[in-house]
Write a structure and sequence with these properties.
alpha/beta, 5 domains, 9-stranded mixed beta sheet, 8-stranded mixed beta sheet
Length: about 950
């Protein structure tokens, strides 16, 4: 009773302090608990420090005489409890499947079907299997945990069905690129231990069906029966589409999916929350149960009316008294409905808040919605700490909090205002509050957000409410007679039409939707900090009766405009840097170069060998990464050579983004993948030009891409396709990077013979590090400090062992995309900095760069190690957070570089002497022949050279 009193008995709104957390200690402790979970996931505090802070906080709160100090002390204790609980849940049980199987093993699993997972295209169906027994090479006996089962079954498997399956184990790989969908992280948050491709599936009759599974199966069967009754009673044409839409409104889009174009329109206009089960469905069920049980005072409606009217003084008891048996009936109905739709974040949040409201009404206690919201979040995260990082939970709680804050901040009721005016005012305020708190999360997770979503919600919210009521009326009538159920379904169809047409109209409005906009974490924090400051200022005005004059408002607006302008200038026009990102595309290559001022060049875009592989690479990897970078236009797209693994994603890119020009080394009309790329360029009206040695691409700010190869003359035809690849050398003042594409030994020797300047700080491994490239002479002429390899996972030939031995002998740092994910190199003209998306360290770190590595990573080495151990078991969250991996002084041809070369001479002096001899011979023969050599630094070029200047001074596409 005392704990419940702490939750429910809070000061009334009229006595509320202007700072909202002071009079709500339970809310403060819940927020501290959630903060402790976040700190544990970030690995900020060691174990013994967490325990110490918890003990000190609990002891200080117990001994404190002042309520404020006690609140802070208990808050520290709550944070420690959250951190320890998160760390404990990250450790799997000893019999968990993740500890008993390995990748590629053949196992036999026995367990229960938990639920059906989102099915993928093709013949496979996916299910979550709760394991009870495991027969494998390393273990045979009882086991626990869940696996994602892929099986070739034609019929859906009911929840709780006992199965025995045989298959091979696969381990989901974390996303290697920013913006890429991290399937491993999603599975880890759902505590799925492994993936199993089942070759045999049979019923396990010896397993008894537990009571919990029987209840879920009964609820799922009843839900299916309700949907079938709706389908039988639905009048008019296109009954299946209307049934799917109404079923999604009642049971949620996750249980009954709707067509993809409807779901996309709802996301674009900000009305997708109407297709997710939340408080509206539970409120309607509560009304029905209370009305049927004789409760005629409509407590919830009275509370809504009082909230909208803001009648002073507002009563302290916003939930009216109900009888205990009425509360039990309502909670039982809500629990059964939750079983039918699943206990997702929004359902759990609404159910817990309803429980607190009914308990407060039955025991005659006060009810505070903010405290109830915090308690609901803490309870959900206490059961599963990984839920805190769930996108669904974040969006659900942010939307609810936004509606509460906006509606309760409405001005007092005016005498002349009518009920429709107050309802419209509340709907507009709720939509605005929801938009303000949800927008940063949408921009952070999905890199897009609706700008005019409130307009669609004005029509969609009341239409959805009416459709929800009519559908609930039609379901029982359809059991009596399908014709009776069709009577309320006629106006329900009209409501669905109103929702769909409103979404279509609002979606086509100019500026209705903002895409390719990514909010980093610090921008989200800044957004919420500004909102909190405005809320505190508003409440201070109410508490201290401060009445600002128009002059005050003008000063505040001017200060906000200046701050916004400074923030925009600082974020849009950053330092004069060049960023090169080598994406993790598996067997393929894609490199994005971002010059000063926002100029972008994509060098190759491909993965795999088929056009389907290229489409998946573009949609799942390249385009999401461009959205995270805020890139809406590609100034130049370079195709080094017409191989599928270098260009099969080009048609999708040309269809999705505006491209300034396509630059290629040579044409190959007989190649179908190349022909598809040319057709896509012609369809998009993008000019196609040929690159040749001596050409250059201006990146602005003194940075340029020099073309070193091929020559563009008939002599190039003596080489095969790989050896005719375009070789680029990025020059940024004292820093250089060499991109040799897929050239082999013949092209490398030709470049050495011609005396082309090859020296570079960063080298992209030629031909993915295969044995047919990266000869001794070429590597010593380049003399790199960092080598980046674009290679697939599990391929022993890329990079080849012999090539790795040469890198190891040279002492360079090797970054592989299959191990480090996307590798980003940032140059400020004097030095380069390298980081990997998956936080994998470089291999074969040079002796000179070791101190720089230690200095860059010493501050978080222990925390990263602890977090990596925990996240490898449960969470894959490290993929979405990058850190600088190295900050080595690798500037141009500095004295540090010459000293490094001299220190390496005894190890490779013979090969270096031979290479220098070839270069000097090539230079002398070139001079004797009349200066036929090509030097990109001097700008001389043959007749077929191509020089392009990226269009200058457009507005930066990256706002954040």
């Amino acid at each position: 009773m005392s704990a419940l009193a702490v939750v429910a008995r809070v000061p009334t709104p009229q006595a509320d302090h202007w700072f909202p957390l002071v009079p709500r200690p339970m809310l403060t402790w819940c927020l501290a608990f959630l903060g402790g979970i976040w700190l544990a996931s970030a690995g900020v505090l060691p174990f013994w420090v967490t325990v110490g802070l918890g003990l000190v906080g609990a002891l200080g709160g117990f001994l404190a005489r002042r309520s404020g100090i006690a609140t802070v002390g208990y808050g520290l204790a709550a944070a420690a409890v959250g951190a320890l609980l998160s760390a404990g849940q990250a450790i799997p049980r000893s019999d968990d499947v993740s500890r008993l199987v390995r990748d590629g093993q053949q196992v036999v699993l026995t367990g229960y079907v938990r639920s059906e997972y989102a099915s993928e295209a093709g013949r496979w169906r996916r299910f979550l299997l709760q394991v009870r027994h495991l027969d494998g090479p390393q273990h045979s006996g009882p086991a626990s945990g869940e696996v994602l089962l892929r099986a070739t079954v034609t019929e859906p498997l009911l929840d709780g069905l006992p199965l025995r399956c045989r298959g091979s184990v696969r381990v989901a790989r974390s996303a290697g690129n920013p913006g890429e969908f991290d399937f491993a992280e999603v599975l880890a948050r759902r505590h799925v231990s492994a993936l199993v491709d089942a070759s045999e599936v049979h019923l396990a009759e010896e397993l008894p069906l537990p009571l919990s599974h029987r209840v879920r199966r009964a609820a799922a069967g009843l839900r299916g029966e309700f949907v079938e009754r709706l389908r039988a009673a639905m009048p008019g044409p296109y009954r299946d589409l209307y049934v799917e839409m109404l079923a999604a409104i009642v049971y949620g889009i996750e249980v009954t999916p709707v067509p993809s174009y409807w779901a996309d329109a709802a996301r674009d206009t900000g009305t997708i929350h109407l297709l997710v089960v939340s408080g509206s469905q539970l409120t309607l069920i509560s009304w029905v149960v209370l009305a049927a049980s004789g409760f005629r005072r409509w407590a919830i409606w009275r509370w809504v009316g009082q909230t909208l009217r803001r009648e002073p003084p507002m009563p302290s008891r916003v939930v009216h008294r109900v009888r205990w048996w009425q509360a039990v009936l309502a909670l039982a109905a809500l629990a059964f409905f939750a079983l039918m739709v699943g206990t997702g974040p929004s359902v759990s949040r609404a159910l817990l808040m309803a429980c607190l409201a009914f308990v407060a009404g039955a025991l005659d206690l006060d009810y505070d919605p903010y405290t109830a919201l915090g308690v609901a979040a803490a309870a959900i995260c206490a059961v599963d700490t990984a839920a805190l990082f769930s996108i669904g939970l974040q969006l659900s709680f942010a939307a609810t909090l936004g509606v509460l804050l906006a509606v309760r901040a409405l001005p007092e009721r005016k005498p002349e205002s009518s009920l429709p005016q107050r309802v419209l005012q509340g709907a507009l305020a709720g939509s605005a509050g929801c938009w303000l708190l949800v927008t940063p999360l949408l921009a952070y997770h999905f890199h897009r957000f609706p700008l005019l979503g409130g307009l669609a919600n004005v029509v969609a919210i009341p239409a959805t409410a009416v459709a929800l009521v009519l559908t609930h009326v039609a379901i029982p009538l359809s059991f009596i007679e399908p014709g009776l159920g069709a009577v309320p379904l006629y106006p329900a169809r009209w409501m669905v039409d109103a929702i769909v047409r409103t979404n279509d109209v609002c979606r086509d409005l100019p500026g209705a939707y903002v895409g390719a906009t990514h909010f980093p974490l610090h921008v989200c924090v800044l957004w919420y900090a500004v909102l909190a400051g405005l809320a505190c200022a508003y409440r201070a005005r109410l508490s201290f009766r401060w009445r600002p004059t128009p002059r005050h408002w003008a000063a505040v607006g001017l200060a906000a405009a200046v701050a916004l302008a400074l923030w925009y200038a600082g974020s849009a026009f950053g330092p004069d840097r060049v960023t090169v990102t080598f994406l993790d595309v598996g067997h393929g290559q894609c490199c994005l170069i971002e010059g000063p001022g926002g100029r972008t060049v994509v060098v190759d875009a491909g993965s795999g060998y088929t056009s389907g592989d290229g489409q998946r690479c573009a949609r799942n990897v390249i385009l999401p990464f461009l959205e995270t970078r805020g890139i809406r236009r590609i100034d130049a797209l370079v195709i080094t050579h017409p191989d599928a693994d270098h260009l099969n994603a080009v048609p999708t890119l040309l269809a999705a983004l505006p491209v300034g020009a396509v630059l290629e080394g040579f044409a190959d009309p007989s190649n179908p993948v190349y022909a598809a790329a040319c057709a896509a360029a012609e369809s998009a009206r993008v000019p196609v030009s040929t690159l040749a040695a001596g050409g250059a691409i201006d990146l602005g700010g003194g940075a340029r891409l020099d073309v070193l190869w091929p020559t563009g003359t008939p002599s190039d035809e003596a080489f095969d396709d790989n050896n005719r690849s375009v070789v680029l050398r990025l020059v940024d003042r004292q820093v250089a990077m060499l991109l040799p594409a897929d050239i082999g030994i013949e092209a490398e020797e030709e470049l050495l013979r011609r005396g082309v300047s090859l020296s570079a700080n960063v080298l992209q491994a030629g031909h993915h590090g295969s044995s047919g490239a990266s000869t001794w002479g070429f590597l010593q002429a380049v003399n790199p400090a960092v080598v980046v390899v674009s290679c697939p996972a599990g391929d022993a030939a890329h990079p080849a062992p012999a090539v790795q031995a040469r890198w190891r002998s040279l002492g360079v740092e090797v970054w592989r995309t299959d191990q480090a994910g996307a590798v980003t190199v940032v140059s400020d003209g004097r030095r380069v900095r390298v980081r990997g998306h998956l936080r994998r360290r470089a291999q074969y770190r040079s002796r000179e760069a070791a101190p720089a590595w230690a200095k860059a990573s010493s501050t978080a080495s222990g925390a990263c190690a602890a977090r990596a151990a925990a996240s490898s078991v449960r969470r894959g969250r490290t993929a979405s957070r990058t850190r600088w991996a190295i900050s080595a002084r690798t500037g141009g041809v500095s004295s540090w570089r010459r000293s490094r070369n001299r220190s390496m001479m005894p190890r490779s002096s013979g090969a270096r002497t031979a290479a220098m001899g070839r270069i000097s011979t090539a230079r002398s023969s070139s001079a004797a022949s009349g200066g036929a050599s090509v030097s990109a630094a001097t700008g001389s070029a043959p007749s077929r050279s191509f020089t392009t200047t990226v269009p200058a001074a457009r507005s930066p596409s990256r706002l954040l």
